[in-house]
Amino acid sequence: MTTILTRLYSDRAAAEAARAGLLSIGQDAATLHIITAQTEGGAAVAMKSVRVVAALAQVYAQAMTGTQALLVVQAAFAPIGTARNAMRLLRKFPALDVGLADEDIYLREHPTPDYSNQIMDKHPLLLSNPFRPLPHGHILGNAPILPHKPRTSAMRGGAYMSKLVWPMKLLSAPKERGSAIRGGRLISAMFGLPLLVKSWPSRDDLPTLLR
After folding, report:
1. pLDDT (tens digit per residue) in 52-82
2. Where are the domains of the chain?
3. Looking at the whole model, is its pTM more than 0.90?
4. Do 71 and 15 touch, CB atoms closer than 8 A?
């Protein structure tokens, strides 16, 4: 679906100001047209070429008797909100009242019967619009296929996952220990008594001890 917005201004300078406003919000320059009575080929032919409906074109042609300039905006359905944003901005640039109840006409795009049995013809983009000469015609305003960006790490940014939740490293270098017991103390020291005592004398040593 394409919305044809038409506004008639007192002169070309006023139409150019409205056009500049549309460009500032991202409207494509190829969809904006300014038509005057002096346009090459005639205003009627120019309005038909940019899809202004015949009923509106007749009213504008009668009103364009001097320096008046017609601004035509071909606001396509994609990206979403293009027509709504253009309507909102054009309210800031009051146009001449030509007696039309509505100057915003919605045109429904119909499929071409010649291509009904073909999946692709000349490699068109998905949801593209032949009346919208933009680099791409995706419905959301962005290219449906993004270029692949090689990454050297599985984690974005290359940072440790531990740094996201803990300011310190989760793995630290082990410290060498000289003993299997932490602190280097003997277990016997915990009891206050030695666990190993001298052995009792043997029978052979008794005579010597009794002398």
Report:
1. 999 999 999 999 999 999 999 999 887 888 9
2. 2-109
3. no
4. yes
